[in-house]
Amino acid sequence: MPTRILWIEGNRAEGPSFVPDLEKKGYLIDLVPTGNAAMARLYEFDPDLVVLNAASMRTTGKRICRSIRENANSIPIILITSPQYQCDDVCANTILTLPFTTRKLLNRIPPLVKHGGKKQIHKGPLMLDMEMLKVRCQGRETRITPRMASILQVLVENAGIVIERDILFCRVWNTEYTGDTRTLDVHVNWIRQAIEENPHNPQFLKTIRGVGFRLDI
């Protein structure tokens, strides 16, 4: 699974852009021109790393960094500055001041990116790691149980489709007995606590009364 980078760079950036070189190295980059555009893409793209080229915007980048931190605290940030606009903002994990080489930038990325297991499933703002047993949604990462991971896998692979309670229970618990599926409700509540901003008013994992559950991504 390629590392996903949300790259913020002004349309009138001076000097070379590092984006083409990083794409050649296999990084998946979503390029946006402003901080507002970055916030709009943050949850949908679900990046592993944010790179803010504040030098291209003739600013310190402090406001954008803080906004990202407030909304997605677990995502690391690399801040690119110019000598004219120095910044010692602790919101950024790494600060690079122009000029510097592509190699220097490439060396800074791996230590910041948490590499997960080999079996990762991305769907919209949700990333499910079946090997490491964790889920990341809207910038928050949570460890989950194998049962929760199995339920999420079924729902993610059938996103937008209502999965009947009995069918979901049989697939996850590997049984034909569906006399008591209350444990399924418990696990669904745990999943909501992991992925929803408000588990009591879920945005993603919906209960379809009398039928089952649906993941809206």
What does this structure look like?
- It is a single chain.
- 34% of the residues lie in helices and 24% in strands.
- Helix 2 (35-45) runs parallel beside helix 3 (62-71) and helix 5 packs across helix 7.
- It has 217 residues and is α/β, with parallel strands linked by helices.
- The strands form 3 sheets. It has a 5-stranded parallel β-sheet, with helices on both faces. A 4-stranded antiparallel β-sheet has the order 6-7-8-9, covered by helices on one side.
- The chain is elongated.
CATH domain topology of the largest domain: Rossmann fold
**Annotated CATH homologous superfamily of the largest domain:** Response regulator
Number of domains: 2
> Which CATH architecture of the largest domain would you pick?
3-Layer(aba) Sandwich
SSE sequence, one letter per element = EHEHEHEEHEEEEHEHHEE
Largest sheet, in brief, is: 5 strands, parallel
**What is the count of β-strands?**
12
Structural class: alpha/beta
Shape: elongated
**Range of helix content:** 25-40%
Average pLDDT confidence is 88
Highest CATH level, the class of the largest domain = Alpha Beta
Strand order of the largest sheet: 2-1-3-4-5
Query: How many DSSP H or I helices?
Result: 7
Rounded to the nearest angstrom, the radius of gyration is: 20 Å
